[in-house]
């Protein structure tokens, strides 16, 4: 158990819908990262927050947004869902935003029908 | 951006055998991690090893940063070692991890 929690574990929804994925980092970690794992793209970095502020952005679609709240949990919002958004979404956390071990949560498996 | 190549892409072992997985990266890194993704999809941290050598039980890893590669050694493999092994690095501009395509390991009993 990495100490990073993600909810829900599974999510099945329809095209065009909007969903919210939630992540709670390990106690004491200030930095949260979101990654997407799909069959065709592999594991890709989406976005990083550090102590409530956006720190780095990867290949995140405009339909996707994220935020980190004062209690340091984070939410990833996915809207206007398409079939291709079906993937495993991971959250990771680390103590700092600088080079440091990232610990991954169990992931949320999203299926868009 | 930084490129990460892992080899071999697939590996089938008999239980008890040893193996070496390789990760090559194209630029200097501040962070290198090895992960094991089990059949349930969980990504498990194995090593944080931007340089040097570490050991944890039957697993060990070595990163030669000056030559831009890392090796993961699995000794006396067990069926529970099956899964996908990923190498991931950041680049010197931030802490986002760039993942290799992974090595699929199957250990047969």
Instruction: List low-confidence stretches of chain A.
Output: none
Q: Distance N terminus to C terminus of chain B?
A: 41 Å
Q: What count of helical segments of chain A does DSSP give? A: 0
Helix content of chain A: under 10%
Instruction: Give the termini separation of chain A.
Output: 31 Å
Q: Approximately how much beta-strand content do the residues of chain A carry?
A: over 45%
Short précis:
The complex is a heterodimer of chains A (113) and B (109). Chain A has strands at residues 5-7, 10-13, 19-24, 31-38, 42-50, 53-57, 64-68, 74-78, 87-94, 103-104, 108-112. By secondary structure, chain A is an all-beta fold.
Account of the protein in words:
The complex is a heterodimer of chains A (about 110) and B (about 110). Chain A is an all-beta fold. Chain A contains no helices and 11 strands. In chain A, the strands form 2 sheets. In chain A, strands 2, 4, 5, 6, 9, 10 and 11 form a 7-stranded mixed sheet that branches. A 4-stranded antiparallel sheet of chain A has the order 1-3-8-7, with no helix packed on it. The model of chain A has no long low-confidence stretch (mean pLDDT about 95). Helix content of chain B is about 0%, strand content about 55%. In chain B, strands 2, 4, 5, 9, 10 and 11 form a 6-stranded mixed sheet that branches. Chain B has a 5-stranded antiparallel sheet with strand order 1-3-8-7-6, with no helix packed on it. In chain B, strand 9 and strand 10 form a beta hairpin. The model of chain B has no long low-confidence stretch (mean pLDDT about 95).
């Amino acid at each position: 158990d990495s100490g990073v929690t993600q909810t829900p574990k599974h999510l099945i929804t329809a095209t065009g819908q909007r969903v919210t994925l939630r992540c709670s980092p390990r106690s004491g970690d200030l930095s949260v990262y979101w990654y997407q794992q799909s069959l065709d793209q592999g594991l890709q970095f989406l976005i990083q927050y550090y102590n409530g502020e956006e720190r780095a952005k990867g290949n995140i679609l405009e339909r996707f947004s994220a935020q980190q709240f004062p209690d340091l949990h984070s939410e990833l919002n996915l809207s206007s869902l398409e079939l291709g958004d079906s993937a495993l979404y991971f959250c990771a956390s680390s103590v700092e935003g600088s080079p440091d071990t990232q610990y991954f949560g169990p992931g949320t498996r999203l299926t868009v029908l | 951006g930084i490129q990460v190549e892992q080899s071999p892409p697939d590996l089938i072992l008999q239980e008890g055998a040893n193996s070496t997985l390789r990760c090559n990266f194209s630029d200097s890194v501040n962070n290198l991690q090895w992960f094991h993704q089990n059949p349930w999809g969980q990504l498990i941290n194995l090593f944080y090893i931007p340089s040097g050598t570490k050991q944890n039980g039957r697993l060990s890893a070595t990163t030669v940063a000056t030559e831009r590669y890392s090796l993961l050694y699995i000794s006396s493999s067990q069926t529970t070692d099956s899964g996908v092994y990923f190498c991931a690095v950041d680049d010197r501009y931030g802490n986002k991890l760039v993942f290799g395509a992974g090595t699929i390991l199957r250990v047969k009993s």
